[in-house]
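WARN  no MSA supplied for this record, continuing single-sequence
INFO  ligand: flavin mononucleotide
INFO  echoing inputs
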Amino acid sequence: MSPFPLYEVLYTSELDPSVKVSTIADIVRRARLWNAAHEVTGLLVFDGGRFCHHLEGPAEVVHALALRISADARHTGFRRLHAATRIGPRRLEGHPLSYGLAYDEAEIDAVTALSGVAATERLMQALPRLELEP
Ligand SMILES: Cc1cc2nc3c(=O)[nH]c(=O)nc-3n(C[C@H](O)[C@H](O)[C@H](O)COP(=O)(O)O)c2cc1C
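INFO  complex generated
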């Protein structure tokens, strides 16, 4: 059990066209260090154009982080699909930021067709089909 109520956020966005895809590696490297130090876990999926990111952790931390991310100029079209307290274990225990490539655009389409916890659960179902980076 976590010592605090878990809070989770799911959003989609698009890589800004002026930003190199290689920048994502830098974002992920820094994010993993920060998330690990602040008890945040999550999954970031990229399909070549769009991001879909699930993050979970202490409510205040996740809320503030999601605000910072939404203001990040390296992506646009930030659209929150889900934000809620979660009763139960973390979805991504032990993963400060898993990063996965989705080869099929239908994967993020299927998530954005939903909202709320159903969208989050649909993203988790995609895990076995993602090319996950260690
Ligand atoms: C798609 C995307 C996902 C991000 N995910 C995280 C994350 O999980 N953790 C994190 O600390 N920063 C993440 N960032 C970076 C933040 O937007 C921000 O640069 C970072 O929190 C540092 O904040 P600061 O620049 O205000 O100091 C992400 C950025 C983008 C574009």
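The two ends are 26 Å apart (CA to CA).
INFO  checksum written, moving to next record
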